[in-house]
Amino acid sequence: MATGEILDGNQPSGTIGGDSTTALLRRALEDEDIKAVVLRIDSPGGSVLASEQIYRECRRCARPESRSSPR
To answer: Which of 32, 41, 62, 65 is the most buried (most CB within 10 A)?
Structure first.
C-alpha cells in the first residue's frame, strides 16, 4: 500500500513520489515472475503531475502487450 501525500520526484517512505512509485511499477512490469500488480493508494492528495505519472504507469501495467513493448 502506498500511503501519504503524493509528491513530485523520488520520495522516502511515508510519502508517495511520482518518480519512485513509477520506478517500482516499471520494475514489476519488467519482471517476468510477477503476474499481477495490486496497488492501493491511501493519500490525502498532492501533486497532480505525480498523480498523472503514477496513473500512466498503472495503465501501462494493465496492457498485456506492455511487457514486450519498447520504452
So the answer is: 41
Q: What is the mean pLDDT of residues 14-41?
A: 93
> Which residues on neighbouring strands pair with residue 7, listed in sequence order?
17
- Polymer length of the chain: 71
> What's the grid cell of residue 30?
519488467
CA-based nearest residue to 4, from 60, 54, 57, 38: 54
Dump pLDDT digits (tens) for 27-37.
999 999 999 99
With beta carbons less than 8 A apart as the criterion, state whether 42 and 18 touch: no
- Which residue(s) pair with 42 in the sheet? 3
Residue 15 contacts residue 4 (beta carbons within 8 Å): yes
Rounded Cα gap, residues 70 and 48, in angstroms? 26
